[in-house]
Fold each of these.
Amino acid sequence: MTQTETLNLTFAALADPTRRAILGRLSSGNASVNELAAPFKMSLPAISKHLKVLERSGLITRGRRAQWRPCRLKARPMKEAMDWLDHYRRFWEESFDRLDVYLQQLQAKEKPQKKKRHGKSKK
Amino acid sequence: MTQTETLNLTFAALADPTRRAILGRLSSGNASVNELAAPFKMSLPAISKHLKVLERSGLITRGRRAQWRPCRLKARPMKEAMDWLDHYRRFWEESFDRLDVYLQQLQAKEKPQKKKRHGKSKK
């Protein structure tokens, strides 16, 4: 799978709240389809469909035993998603920086006004 | 927007390679729809559709001037996505740890064999 395909499938898989909840459940241990379906008011076929999406994206693997095929979390594709997002880190960090600068400017503006009103500034 | 909605829309928006490429382009500066469309062999309406998805997810904002509505990257929803993914960090780090343990076990197995074969171990 190319990196582009991995990102396409991973982000698409993570876009659904049920699939994210399934991954959350699997983070505390492997589980069968029945166990995964229990907390959701969903039919087994509906859960199975979600599991297929997760399996295709490489976010879970399933055991091979016919009756009890436990699902297991595979976090590796999440790392690729995170590495991609990490390139944009400076943009959200910059927004905070800009907010800081703005707040400092507001405070700087406020100080001379206080000076005017009270005739002297508190240091 | 709830955190669940933010994650749904952000991951869905990021699941498309054209949309990721548009965000990449915007990371080097604001751009108009025409400028964004240029590198893609896509019609303006197709690009506009992608921009609408990005705008709805809060990943871009658009200027209000009717003729030239520059798009601007807003990375904030990406931070939410990254924070969500970060909960799974230990799982991909653990896989590496397990690989480390496995390699150490292999090496540990190898050493006594060498000892046997050569009669003495190198320290």
Amino acid sequence: MSHTKKTRTTVDIYGKTYTIIGDENVHHTRLVASIVDDKMNEIHQANKSLDTTRLAVLTAVNTVNDYLKLKDDYDLLLKKIEEKEDL
Amino acid sequence: MSHTKKTRTTVDIYGKTYTIIGDENVHHTRLVASIVDDKMNEIHQANKSLDTTRLAVLTAVNTVNDYLKLKDDYDLLLKKIEEKEDL
């Protein structure tokens, strides 16, 4: 565990209040919360019958999917750099 | 919108069944679902009083946070490649 100072940030996501404790600054945590809120609203617009739990789970599913795609791109880029350095 | 064939995959995440429709193959979608399920269990272990909706929202918050960190790393790497190419 790190011993850096933790920040506590209160944010609203999809009508509920959350206190997020972490290493990130308040500005960053608010940005993350607003992205989650936007994504939940977006999925709600596409499928209005989903309850809040399902909306949040599907938001997490979408984001993990985006993460894995970006990770593939990142690894490709890293390989490209390593190949260049080998020349 | 793309016209590629969509796959439908049924997955279990934190005790509920979801049908995920997307461009990804079944194997990939199951991997994504298992990552979300693991994260929800992890957050539940750290804070057992959270209800499922809050757990799901905090899982989404964590995944978006991880995504943004990786995006920063990706952008740094891209900048590094561009600088090398300018030499």
